[in-house]
Amino acid sequence: MLHEKATASSLTLSDKIDRVVTNRWLALPVFVLIMWGIYTIAMGGTVVSIGTMGTDWVNDVLFGEWIPNGVETLLTTLGVGEVLSSLIQDGIVAGVGAVLGFVPQILVLFFLLSILEDCGYMSRVAFIMDRLFRRFGLSGKSFIPLLVATGCGVPGIMASRTIEQDRDRKLTIMTTGFIPCGAKMPIIGLFAGAVFGQSPWVATSAFVIGIAA
Fold first, then answer.
1. What is the largest CA-CA distance in the chain?
2. pLDDT digit string (tens) for 174-184?
């Protein structure tokens, strides 16, 4: 049987991209660079961090000035008591604002991830990581939610929607919750400091065990 080796001129653009993004040595560095760019745009603190700008505007302007001032004016006009007014302002308005503050970052993150999905890069990443993750009963696509969960568990779990198989998606959701994120770190530090005498080993162990679990 005769096998003809593909020449550089006969390779399509997709084939040339595959040679780089699925290369044994370049695949992971390229992936880290791309994810760094996505994190920087969605959740970073630079001039191109659109998601952070949106979150800061929602927290500081929309729910920091506009809505509280408008609600306060409305409550004063209606003659609402101080206790009920405090409950509405500090409870409902502040609570809703704290939750909606994450929306801009999540929207930007999922928009960028959807671009990677549509251009086929996520499938290539899943192909690279599939052999390793199958040893743990997970799909190669589970790598993205687990990575995103190191920043925040909520978008990490939501990122599992790209996994087609129901079993793999549910396993990814359950395991993603164990990844220590920014919200879990203060709790780990609180328990290590208040219960275990500020033991650094307890904090480190909780972080590592969460990932290992």
1. 90
2. 999 888 887 78
Residue at 195 is within a domain:
yes
Within-domain flag for 199: yes
Q: How many domains does the chain have?
A: 1
Question: Which residues neighbour 144 within 8 Å (Cβ) at sequence distance 6 or greater?
Answer: 113, 122, 125, 159, 162
Q: Residue 213 falls within a domain, yes or no? A: yes
Q: Of 205, 175, 179, 176, nearest to 192 (Cα)?
A: 205
Question: C-alpha 54: how far from its chain's center?
Answer: 16
Q: Find the domain containing 203 and state its range.
A: 180-213
Q: Which residues contact 202 (CB under 8 A, 6 or more apart)?
A: 191, 192, 196
Q: Which residues contact 129 (CB under 8 A, 6 or more apart)?
A: 140, 142, 143
Calculate the alpha carbon distances from 17 to 8, 22, 31, 120, 140 in Å.
Answer: 12, 8, 13, 11, 19
* pTM greater than 0.85: no
Instruction: Name the DSSP letter for residue 6.
Output: P
pLDDT tens track for 126-166: 888 888 888 888 888 888 888 888 877 888 888 888 788 89
DSSP per-residue letters across 166-190: HHHHHHHHHHHTTS--TTHHHHHHH
